[in-house]
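so my prof wants the structure for this chain in the tokens format not the other one, which i didnt know existed until like an hour ago. anyway here's the sequence
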Amino acid sequence: MLPGKPVAQRPVVRPVEQREEVVGPPCPACGTPNPPGRKFCRRCATPLNPQAAPAPLPWWRTIWPFRRRVRAGSGRWVRVLVILLVVIALCVGGFLLLPAGRALFEDTRDKLGGSKAITATKVTASAAVPGHPASNTTDGLSNRYWGAPGPGASVTYTFGKPFRMVDLIITNGASDAPQQYATEARALQMDMEVTSSDGTVHRESLSLSDKAGHQTIPTGISDVVRVRLVLHSVTGLTPGRHVALAEVEFFQRS
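here's what i got, hopefully its the right format
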């Protein structure tokens, strides 16, 4: 008897599943409908509910120190701070526009900045003894001087363009050398008359020490075009002597 021949199993025919029609929002990328509640597309996995782009920040939030994240409800304090800063800026601007504020600002610049010498373009005197003209006070030599006949004489310095006069250095007497200083009379008081480019005249009384050497006088006057010095309180004036002024130097802001 022949062995039995194996019989192959017959394939089982399964019914075709009918696809359920999905009703829902379409995918923004491929358009496939997706059931409600899904976060990603069932076909291409694209996020179905992308977060909206954040709204642009207001201009004041882009400026330091407002770049930090502001908590909800704190906008009122930020507005108060901005208003306060604006008020302070207006006050500072108004202060600088006032004469006193402007003067304080210029004086601060004088102290923080440097200075350099400026020479007068013209020097004239009300009187001078022979051989001692007023131009000797600006020649850079302290052993030559302007000789005035007595108190009340004046010397005037004229400048080519307005400048900010920060310092005035005076070398009194006949020389800066102690041996020659007291050989002639000296003025221990001077009236300074400074004329600005707009015609404003600034008057100040200067007191000088009766000693040899340079004496620095801070001034801080703007737009100077002319300076006049009048000699007073003369000491050492005896017959045969005259009032000596060795050097006058002007310094402007550099």
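also thought this was worth mentioning. DSSP finds three helices and eight strands in the chain.
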